[in-house]
Amino acid sequence: MDKILVHGGKSLEGDVRIGGSKNSALPILAATLLTKEKCVIDRVPDLSDIHYMLTILSSLGAEVERASGVVQIRAEKIITEAPYEIVRKMRASVCILGPLLGREKSAKVSLPGGCVIGDRPIDLHLKGFEALGAKVTVKGGDIFLHADKLKGARINLRGRHGPTVLGTGNIMMAAVLAEGTTVIEGAAEEPEVVDLARFLTAMGGRISGAGTQHIEIEGVAELHGANHTVIPDRIEAGTFLVAGAIAGTRVTITRTEPEHLGAVIHALKEAGFNLSHTSDTVTISPNGARKPLHLETIPYPGFPTDMQAQFCAMLATMNGTSVVTETVFPQRFMHVAELKRMGANIELIDHHATIHGVERLSGAPVMASDLRASAALVLAALPADGVTEINRVYHIDRGYEAIDEKLNGLGAHIERVKAK
Ligand code: EPZ
User: Fold this and answer.
1) Which residues pair with 348 in a beta bridge?
2) How many angstroms is it from 351 CA to the middle of ligand 1?
3) Using a 6 Å cutoff on CB, does residue 198 contact ligand 1?
4) Considering the entire predicted model, what is its pTM?
5) Per-residue pLDDT tens for 37-54?
6) Is 95 annotated as catalytic?
7) I need a surface site. Which of 96, 100, 163, 257 has the fewest CB within 10 A?
């Protein structure tokens, strides 16, 4: 397995270009199953998770062509059973259930496993499919969906930990071809849900309210092909802003969407950094004293759970005591043990991390785990004394396109060591 070596102590300066959103591209690629016609999706990031999704779509019978960031898909004839050996690699594969049910009224997909950030139930997805008229059977680790027809329904998708992002997308993709109107209450408001709704609308779907907790989908008989450009990745953008906070003199992220970054920009300003933006760039620079934070992750537009680990890395060397509370995935603290190996002083009680800032972290061999925890370790290593060796770097490659090259472009010194 590849690993990366981060030589600490370099300061970052300059511009870095943000790629297309992984969490928007995945359901949009799945949504191309809803039509027999060709779809062209632009600004699809080059990530292993995207590769897995394209492999799944091909295995279902879709013709898939990729040329740099542009993907062409034509799902003229498809089967509705996805192979376990691919689905098991990526939990987000669950978002093919909605389009398969919507188009073919049938689906067989293996239950997504849990992952290091915690149990990843899909009870709300299945509740929504049943409300639309599908028979849901879970047997032998597989989910079977079947419906004679789908009828619009009123569905509440709010769970214990708030709305479900992929659940909202899945129900939209099934309801768009149902008979009658579906109302989703407690829908996720994330920009990725809005982007999916835009694509479905371009295909001929009738959707209103995306971006609010109340979405209405008026079913249509069929959908046609469409072209779409994916929104910028707000979590990659936030990650590079934190890199600028941790080790930067002045870092600008370009081709981004500042309005998707409101909570992250607010938190960085609270921590004492200077931030300015234009319509598609955000610039961060230090501003003297830096302050500890009390952060709580909540659904969009609140502070995103996908930025929690990166902020823990920044707060580890922030003078004073910070508290980070994780309400979306309460177990999502795999990065804490690794940060402590680098000298961080963090106490974990339930879903709260109390971080006592230390002067500087020290490089050490650490283990990547989930996607965002791995990115947090890279960030923590930037100002650390000495070299940090990050193993299992495939976790990072799932969600960040060439993060080492992009950071080196800003002045970091990161080496990627290919496995022998
Ligand atoms: C999406 O996952 C993202 N992944 C996650 O990003 C992100 O952390 C998450 O939304 C929350 O913002 C993709 O979009 C591919 P949820 P998703 O359903 O949709 C509970 C990353 O790092 N829940 O919104 O799977 C669930 O356990 C990844 O890029 C149920 O209880 O997350 C969690 O506590 C990690 N029942 C909460 O809801 C359900 O049926 C939010 O989960 C579904 C979810």
Assistant:
1) 353
2) 17
3) no
4) 0.97
5) 999 999 999 999 999 999
6) no
7) 257
